[in-house]
Amino acid sequence: MARKRRRRSTTSSRAGGLPWLAAGILTGLLIAGLVWWLQQPVPPPGDAELRRLLEPGGRKTPSDQPGKRRHGQHPAEKESAYDFYHLLPEMEVVVPEEELASAEARRPGGNARPNKPARYLLQAGAFRTHRQADELKARLALLGFEARIVRIETPQGTWHRVRLGPFGSLRELDRVRHALQKHRIDAIALKVAD
Questions:
Q1: Is residue 60 assigned to a domain?
Q2: Which range marks the domain in which residue 150 is found?
Q3: Which of 64, 103, 168, 169 shows the smallest number of beta carbons within 10 Å?
Q4: Could you tell me which residue, 134 or 48, shows the higher pLDDT?
Q5: CB of 85 closer than 8 Å to CB of 153
């Protein structure tokens, strides 16, 4: 005769799957948050400090401040281990927006010509690390711009400046500057004295 088959009772725990579901959702949220955080644009450090230093009256050395004098230093004496602190401000000048706007308004056949042609540069950023400067240089290269990195030593530390140019005219400089702005890269125009 045929035997009766007995059913084995299986106990499935519904509560056992709930912690796994919660852990999966939490892990997914953590990964999504990490991806969002990594994609946030990082403002380049030092732009505010650079703009402050390039503004007229923004550069003051400790010996320039009234009432503060180093031991053994005469007021007329200015000691510095490096000459470029004095040479750089004389060599580079930030081009004001008004001058850039007036260059756009000029006609190409105008009578007003400068006596000496000036050279212009665009500074796309200044970074503490060479890696950050190299990343911006690579980004500019992908956009079709040739940039270079200039290492500058200041009392506040080392800066790596990403520069484009030189440009022979304000019109050419402005064309490149607007192209950079379309790609959300804000550049400072500099006039280089010969």
A1: no
A2: 47-55+80-106+117-192
A3: 64
A4: 134
A5: no
- What pLDDT score does 28 carry? 96
pLDDT tens column, 113-155: 555 567 889 999 999 999 999 999 999 999 999 999 999 888 8
Residue with tokens 């992908």: 142
* Higher pLDDT among residues 36 and 15, named by residue: 36
User: In percent, how much of the chain has pLDDT > 90?
Assistant: 32
**What pTM was computed for the model?**
0.46
CATH code where residue 123 lies: 3.30.70.1070
145 belongs to a structural domain: yes
Distance of alpha carbon 115 from its chain centroid, rounded?
A: 34
Q: Are 120 and 191 in contact (CB under 8 A)?
A: yes
Nearest to 164 by CA among 178, 46, 42, 47: 178
- Number of domains the chain is built from: 1
Mean pLDDT of the chain: 74
Is residue 75 situated within a structural domain?
A: no
Q: Quickly list DSSP for the chain.
A: -PPPPPPPP----STTHHHHHHHHHHHHHHHHHHHHHHTSPPPPTTHHHHHHHHSTT----GGGSTT---TT--TT----S-SHHHHHHHHEEEPPHHHHHHHHHS-TT-S---SS--EEEEEEEEESSHHHHHHHHHHHHHTT--EEEEEEEETTEEEEEEEEEEESSHHHHHHHHHHHHHTT---EEEEE--
Identify whether 182 is part of a domain: yes
